[in-house]
Design brief:
By secondary structure, the chain is of the alpha/beta class. It has ten helices and nine strands. Strands 1, 2, 3, 4, 5 and 6 form a six-stranded mixed sheet that branches. Strand 2 and strand 3 form a beta hairpin. Helix 1 packs antiparallel against helix 2 and helix 7 packs antiparallel against helix 8. The two termini are about 25 Å apart.
Length: about 280
């Protein structure tokens, strides 16, 4: 799907007034309610804040995509806001969010909302979307930037379809491997933690604790904190991408996003469930 299908000029805030993420979320929900997209402001806000309390919806690179399922909506509704100073969204990369796309969707549009998340994540990664939107002087220009990014993405998909699988494999090999070293460490840590949980109530071997501590010492704190939050809430923190889909929540990714995930120099999280991803 195209981002411009969901964003209109009257749902764009070029300068957000909120100073923290809760204020920003209220501001954007109020905008959608004022435009008639949200019949019950209080209920919508409650769902948005509840979703945000579970884990950050900031995917990094200055981009946050808070989202929530809200019964009573007739169609998916999107509001966009920009903050030049930046808002602390507790992002994994440690940087503030400058661009916020708020996405509210009815239960019937669950698949559509996943498509939107995937598409927007791809545009941010491959088409320098954050920098281009930060430079846009007004709402009209913001919409044109989004339209241009949509068109560029469609063109890149067409070019990518002409590349052979063998060529892509050679490129990944030249980059030094298929899995980011931090992801590889977290996958090992996950196995060790699962083994530790399986023998709960029994003496924990010193060697197992030592392996866990060694890995913890090698992983950046922000990734380690997110890893254990995912383990507590979702059971698994690191999951494979198979047949173009996250095997944690089964979100189907675009072909361009799948190509990006295969880059071992970067760490990727599922835009929906926020688990760490690796290609198999």
């Amino acid at each position: 799907m195209q981002i411009t299908e969901c964003v209109s000029a009257n749902s764009v805030v070029t300068e957000l007034q909120g100073k923290d993420r809760h204020d920003v979320l209220r501001e954007l929900v109020e905008l959608l309610a004022a435009n008639g997209h949200v019949p019950d402001y209080e209920t919508a806000l409650e769902h948005v804040l509840e979703r945000e309390s579970l884990e950050s919806t900031c995917i990094g690179q200055g981009l946050a995509i808070p989202h929530a399922r809200v019964a009573g909506l007739s169609n998916m509704a999107v509001a966009f806001g920009r903050s030049r100073p930046g808002i602390d969204f507790n992002a994994l990369d440690g940087f503030p969010a400058h661009l916020v796309f708020l996405l509210l969707y009815p239960p019937k549009d669950a698949a559509k909302h996943l498509s939107f998340l995937s598409e927007l994540s791809t545009l941010a990664v491959r088409h320098n979307l954050v920098a281009r939107l930060m430079e846009a002087p007004d709402a009209g220009t913001i919409l044109r930037v989004l339209a241009d990014a949509d068109a560029e993405h469609e063109a890149s998909i067409a070019r990518g379809a002409q590349q052979s699988v063998a060529g892509a494999s050679e490129q990944r090999a030249d980059e030094g491997g298929l899995v980011n070293p931090v992801i590889a460490l977290l996958a090992r840590l996950q196995r060790f933690e699962q083994h530790k949980a399986a023998i709960a109530g029994e003496p924990i071997p010193d060697a197992l604790d030592e392996k866990i501590l060694n890995i913890k010492s090698l992983v950046p704190k922000r990734h380690l904190d997110h890893f254990y939050k995912l383990m507590d809430r979702r059971g698994l923190a690191v999951v494979p991408v198979e047949r173009g889909a996250c095997q944690g929540c089964h979100m189907q990714f675009s072909s361009a996003f799948n190509q990006e995930i295969s880059n071992p120099r970067r760490i990727f999280n599922c835009p929906s469930c926020r688990r760490f991803l690796f290609i198999v």
